[in-house]
User: Fold these one by one.
Assistant:
Number 1:
Amino acid sequence: MIGCTLSFRTEPPRFQETTVHHSPLIVGLCGNPAPASKTLTLTTEVTAALADLFAGAATEVIDLSTHAERVLVWGDEAVAASRDLLRSADLLVVATPVYKGAYTGLLKAFLDGFDLGELANVLAVPVTVAASPAHALAGPTHLEPVLREIGCLVPGGTLHVPDKIARDADARSVLVAEWISVRTPMLATAGRELVR
């Protein structure tokens, strides 16, 4: 019998105790082109809820609606600063409404600014909001693959929030808490000592 060992990592995991010398940074990214959207509220809530799992975590939320007219402008300083913030993140919350069965064009344009594998080993939590149950698979079929393409790890899959729940603060909080609770072991495996 021939034995073999498979290794898929070329560098240590991002969250090994020997490599982390800073407080973890959790960045929320809202891909809704409308300002003050329910997607932004959800992004902020999920980002804060995840921060409760990570010792000493700092949080930032980027609202892409503030970049809507500039996201395709090459070299725009505000857009570049937002991309730099994602590069420095340990965990991303990437939220989008579902438009025509997929994530928004604004989010696509922003994510297209990253090279293949550029966010290697950054944990990501995709979040989708949609009115139709038929769009519940938009995250796994469209958003997760692009996040993996730019290097993110997506250990817990997508948090899908029906539009009706996204509008109800109490129901939304319950859904977010339950989703995170079920996936805490997966996040703990990916980011060991940062999970309390």
Number 2:
Amino acid sequence: GGKRIFHAAMVNTPPGVHDVYDESALLTPLARLICQHLDVPRWVFKLDDETGGRGCAHFDTASLACFEGLLRQHDAAPDDWEDEQLQARLQAVLYEELA
């Protein structure tokens, strides 16, 4: 799809993933994206086989019970946020809530 072409051409695109074919394959990258981009309040999903606005959905991060805690933790220690072990723990918490 278009995302791969833009990426190959090094065109700036919003954060996201592509080539996701089922719900279980979506949750792990979504948890990673939310952790990496706490400033994105809404994630949009688009199914490639739909047209006319069908196949679009959105998800607001504020609806997650753990999201305020993530923001507080980030604000308390922003320099630690990129730590791989911390990210793995936080993404696991997000995954459980998303599932």
Number 3:
Amino acid sequence: MADTSYVPIAGVRRRPAEKRSQLDHTRLTPAGQRLLDAASQLFYEYGIHAVGVDAIAEAAGTTKKTLYDRFGSKNVLVALYLQRRADRWQRFVLDYLAGRADANDGEDGVSAAATRSVLAVLDALAEWNATLNRGCAFINAFAEIGGADHPGEAVIRAEKKWTCELYARLLREAGFADGISAELGTQLAILQEGALTMWTAGGVPDAIGHARAAARQLLSTVPS
């Protein structure tokens, strides 16, 4: 089972009064939780740079001072928004996979088992994105903060690495060797990212369906 526990945010320079728990979205005060909830919605809908701390505080029914008291900076709040979203997505897909663990399409063998697991991840992705309208929050955020020495960048990179490792683990568990599993895991993660982009920006409503077909074809060509 992949580890989806909280990953400390790298690169955050905390104020002396800022407590370590303030970098953990699971240990927020009620006001801190409201601020994170409001910021998460606003950042996803309108973008990180377009949303200021005044708008976040107003949406949360609190003050800008409370925001800085709880988080220290907007950058930390952005990183926590991304970390919580990553945690929720990872928990969602792992729960989805657990619910499909006994599913069987009647085909046997390493390739068939690997295909079932990989397609289940893409099915989870389709369900997760069914109500979203702006695509991948991590890619959207990277377009704004990537390369700017922002603490959120480490969260984004960790989430993308997790996706590669998830696919690789599923392939190993199906019976593929470590080397080919790692290589295919990266290829499948790239396929997933492309599907998200084409679904959101490319005007292809069944992009994930196309990704499922491509994944099935890819795995069918690999000697088991």
Number 4:
Amino acid sequence: MTIAAAVLAAALTTGAPHLLAAEDGAARPVETAGLPPATEDVEAHAELPAPLSEEDAARYAGIMTLQEDGKWREADRLIAKIGNRLLMGHVLAQRYLHPTKYRSRYAELARWMADYADHPQARQIYKLALTRKPRNARAPRSPAWTYAGGTMAADALDSGRNGLRIRGRAAKIESRVRALVWRTRLTAAEDYLARPQIRGALSAAEMDSLRTRIASGWFLYGNDENALRLVAPAAKRSGHLVPAARWTAGLAAYRSGRHEDAAAHFEAMAKSDRLGRWNRPAAAFWAARANMVARRPDRVSHWLGIAASEPRTFYGILARRVMGLDSGLRWDRPVLDGEHIAALNASAGARRALALIQIDEPRQAERELRLLTGAEDPALRASLLAVSEEASLPSLAMGVAGAIAASGGERLDRGFYPVPHWKPEGGFKVDRALIYAFMRQESAFKVRAKSHAGARGLMQLMPATAGYMANTRFRGRGRDRLYDPGLNIALGQKYLDYLIRHDQVQGDVFLLAAAYNGGPGNLAKWQRRVGKVTSDPLMFIESIPSRETRLFIERVLANLWIYRERLGQDRPSLDAIAAGARPVYKAQDNIEVADAESDAGKN
């Protein structure tokens, strides 16, 4: 029996509905004792090189503490005793950039630039030097580095399912249509496009792109007939240029019971050369789904296989689970052997970073190491991944893994999905995999992350939400307390636990992600609106009006399933979706084991 035939048989003959023809399933929170992490996560750690003697490390740590408080004379007495002056650039940068207790002179700044232009503070000091340069003084030396490496270079989110760029006058028309759709004035948007002067300003593909945007609005507000009226012809004309037309037409056709039409749209989209690594598996998976429901099992395996070829995406993971395949991920621990240690010792920036790790200055160490992520030496780049893991620099690990993949190297899953050593105040109360899944999406493990809306820290907590969880207020400078990892994770996991038990969520991890991103109030509105047209969990996601929330759910769930595997745990929410049921949160961590391993840094 083929895979497709077996899946079809399960869908048609078992009592529980199957993923490819899903129906409603009750969702209730279930807490169960879990398993300890996989044995690969408790291997002995490599020992990082220590450039400083114990005495100098203690002196540098003391100097940094004294200077933070503006105690310059006491700091100078310790500086005089330093034997290894490896970190003097950092010491002086801390002094010269002190916000309140030191005013640096131009001569000091220029001398620093002459000696330490390769340091991560060089840009700040250079700008400050220019503001304090006397009229006749020589300009300071320029910074000797170019910042390299983002956080998710090879794991960037797709920009959407519409592959057509609209420019010029057409862009102004698009902006007007976008505004009308956002205000749900969909008929007005259609009338606007029908004006002769508007039609004359657009190419056929641009017109179909804007029709697709309006049709998406009709679909998201539950009107499949109007959506198909607009988008089905647009998809046939311009689907090769506007993949979003195929996507919207496929969803509207599927939800309205026209499964063969839906399959045709999804198949055409999956063949497009304008798709990113998240969108192709989505189209292929829905092509398999539509063919399954249309009772064409011979076409299912092919499309599931295409979806399964992207094992780090939401629909790719689902496809692999349905097909009975392993995850396709590798968790090899990065090597730190003689070659890699030699590469670190050969780099002045790496030596400084290792010294900063010695004196418990991880933030400055990460800044040094980020400057090296674009290094051409493969041994040096590989060693950075080992250092980031041993020193618990998860944001750096993602950046290094992204740089390696972007340059044609292998995808290092251990770097893309790091496990930090941070522990919430009071210990873990919610599974680490769930916390890391949200943290990776919200902040990419950047401790000082801040959104334009004011959300702060690893879990991107709004001060009001954090205050509600902590029963206190975070105002003024007090808001910066939310950058503290222990406090931020503690309040974040408390909010997760609150949402898990919320009446709107009831343990459903899809709804949990939606509520975390959009708020329980918006979730309630979406449930009222979307629930009228579908009881299918996957269709529910794709029917949520907020594109940001749709993407957020898929990214967080993919993160969750991948972290479950990294920690050697079962994936009950994935199994539930594969069985056509609601994905209910089931705790897997042994909390005492999780706390102990976080303390020991064994993940």
